[in-house]
Amino acid sequence: MSDQSSGLSKAQEIYSNRSRRARELKAEGRKLIGYPCVYVPVEMLTALDLIPYRACGDIREPVTEADRALPGSFCAVMRSCLDCALKGKNDFLDGMVAIHSSDPQEKTARVWESYTDHPYFHFIDMPVTVRPEAVEYFTSQLDDFRKTLEAFAGRELSADRLKQAIDYHNRQRGLVRQLYDLTKTSPPAISGTEILQVVKAVMGLPVAEGNDLLTEVIGEARDRTDRPEKKPARLLLWGSTLDDADVMQVFEAKANVVMDDSCGGVRAYRADVKLTADPLEDLARYYLNEITCARTFRQASPGETSKAYTKDLQSRFGYLDDIIREWNINGAIMLLVRYCDPFAFEMPALKDYFESLGLPSTYIEYDYTTGALAPLRTRVEAFLETIA
Amino acid sequence: MTAQDKEKRAINRLESMRPLRAKVNETYLKSVEAIQSGKPAVWGMLNFYYGDPILKAMDIEVVYPENYGAIAAAMGVAQQYLDRADAEGFPTHLCGYSLTTLGYASRMMKELGGEIPPEAPLGGMPKPLFLMSSAAICDARYKWFQALGRYMDAPVWTLEAPTPGVKEFFMEGYYDAMVTLGVKHLRDFVAFVETMVGRKMDWDRLDRITNLMIEVNRVWHEVNELRKVKPCPMHSRDFWSAMPAALFLAGDLEDSLRLYQDMYREVKARVDSGIGAVPEEKYRLVFAELPPWHSLAFFDKLAERGWSFVVESFGYRPPIPIDPDVMAVSDPLERITRFSLQFFAGYYEDARQQKVLGGAFAYPYLKYAREWKCDGAMLHPLISCRSASTHLPYVADMLMEKLKVPSLSIEGDIVDLRLFNTEDALARAEPFEETMDHYRMVRQQEGLDW
Ligand code: SF4
Ligand code: SF4
């Protein structure tokens, strides 16, 4: 990495070659642990001086190796993720942590574990409801994760270290939210594409380094004179995974994406972990309750014996209401990765919710390949015409 | 010779399967009658035993939209529901049964004010009192029932279903944490059901039903163990005919137990006298996933060539029996939990020993191939049931890598029944015999004993 670069240009460099910084860190004697999904409590890795590294797919890389074990009709993101891993693109990793956040995550984890030989591999099971017994079970899962991590790292994960790590990651969440605050203006001070690059870069760095980078980017963007161009549409993107700047640019060609509610955007940063006496349970509560991903089964009240659709929508999507108002959003795109069931089932309901707020929306599917970009562009342009 | 005679000759079906199958059909019809006469019904997902004994003890009729999806497809009415779901904005790559149900619910609730659609086969599915979904196996199982909230105000209970990693499962306290989750969760589920039906649980009844459920499955497991013998005394076709009584706890469980015991006796008698389900058994195969229901004659054609299907899909098989000591546990909810956990975990000790970390979806097939001495695997990926198809390439890879057992993959579907083409499938099956012969030699060279 060039020494001169800082802020946005540095983030963009890291984004374009994430493994380079990872290899540097490895050469410095640091240990890196991969994770494919934002439900993995990265705080626990940080607390043991292990660097959490979000293992991603690559839309430019045709899937070949993963074909050995996963069918074509399978979550396109996970197929690509596994393919990159099997091609040795993450060979600097000292281990992997997978989690049962969705069925494809679980199935891929099994294959990943049996086809690779990381010195460390752990699978965290995850309940789907937010009921008290589910939180208790998830806490016990995190406790088991703690035990295997301690054995791997050769030291104990004390509650104090964990609290400190949570604090660092909360700071990171706050910084990412500040980044998104910069899109509230018109034109935004930073583009959706730039934010995506920064977030993806940060997801491969030690937390303190990531926080420094975020601080630099925020400072730079606040003062910049070369703001992104103002476009007529201010879009909310909602979906499972969006982690490629080229895909984001398809949306930003004729619109400003001011909020990206995906796991390559704000999803992992929208709320803070609330610290109490038991940090492990705090993490369990946070990951189960606060990350608003379609995989979690939410209801107006857990165990309800009567149901009203409006309340149901509110419990599932209500957090978007403030976002839409505060960011002055005038269109929403529900971006679906092909064969991603948890998000696919949400489509008509979320559309109903947007309609209840008077927000035009559309649903677009893509298959996480470069071949998807052209049809995506056509669909986006068609939608933008309807809201122009 | 009539076609029927020919079928008889191709696969020697079990006599004891017939009363069991008749009982499943009769139970279904009785349930339809009860619902038609006004008894409330619950829509349920196949949940691998967590919720079913509780509903049974509360005398609640359950309809399974997954099964109903299959009926709608077979009766040719599914397409209009699929079209409807599409028009409502559900992505078409979703599970075909879910789309069928969503389209059905839309038609019933939005167009007919809650009346059962007149075209709905076999009495249709009435508006449910509540929905019992499950987190087991696939995301569709709970997201689909949640999505039904768009059409009906029926509350949903999602049954948790812990899914351990193979290594992790053996950590101290891991199993106990799963049991604690299960018991607390089911206790709250019972309270939910009591509120919904306005009646209290009869705990003695639940106790009896739980024990019967476990015993029925134990005997059913023993029947399948007998199929390890050469020649195999029972064909997969009998398995599929008999399985619903154990998997869905259809009808009176004491009757089921008696009928499975009869089946055990018949299969054992065949073993003792060396009678095979296929007269000249040349190839023994494992079948993965649901069979092509409307092309079952395909198996008779293969039986004529000496193919015997000796073991089948893990997802529909009885759990490996739990430790008999567990039967002494006084809380039926804990017994249910431990029994349900066996569905996955029953395979884990063995999987760990064999160092196969692929979890319960892939490992069982290695166990089957090894213990049932299979020459090949026939994989039947189902285009619109993702969960049924996901693990199959991995299964094929593992079977070849670890055991030198080849696989033949033939696509089908759960909704578009034309996708499975018997002629094409047969054309591919014939050359597969050479492959199976070849790998028989390879296994011998590698010191494998079949
Ligand atoms: S949530 Fe969707 S995109 Fe993400 S891993 Fe699961 S199926 Fe794939
Ligand atoms: S995907 Fe398959 S297993 Fe899942 S609900 Fe649909 S038919 Fe059932």
Structure description:
- The complex is a heterodimer of chains A (388) and B (450).
- Chain A contains 16 helices and 8 strands.
- By secondary structure, chain A is of the alpha/beta class.
- Chain A has a domain at 30-158: Rossmann fold, CATH 3.40.50.11890.
- In chain A, α3 (42-47) links the parallel β1 and β2 (50-54).
- In chain A, α1 (7-16) crosses α9 and α4 (76-86) runs parallel beside α5 (103-115).
- The radius of gyration of chain A is 20 Å and the shape is globular.
- Chain A starts with 6 loop residues before the first helix and ends with a helix.
- The model of chain A has no long low-confidence stretch (mean pLDDT 96).
- Chain B is of the alpha/beta class.
- Chain B is 53% helix and 8% strand.
- In chain B, the strands form 2 sheets. In chain B, strands 2-1-3-4 form a 4-stranded parallel sheet, with helices on both faces. A 4-stranded parallel sheet of chain B has the order 6-5-7-8, sandwiched between helices.
- The radius of gyration of chain B is 22 Å and the shape is globular.
- The model of chain B has no long low-confidence stretch (mean pLDDT 93).
- Chains A and B meet through α5, β4, α6, α14 and α15 of A and α7, β4, α8, α15 and α16 of B.
- The structure holds iron/sulfur cluster (SF4) (2 copies).
- One iron/sulfur cluster (SF4) binds next to α4, α5 and α14 of chain A.
- One iron/sulfur cluster binds next to α4, α5 and α14 of chain A.
Largest sheet geometry of chain A: 4 strands, parallel
Low-pLDDT regions of chain B:
none
Q: What is the helix fraction of residues of chain A, given as a range?
A: 40-55%
- How much is the average pLDDT of chain B? 93
Number of helix segments of chain A?
16
Question: How many DSSP H or I helices of chain B?
Answer: 18
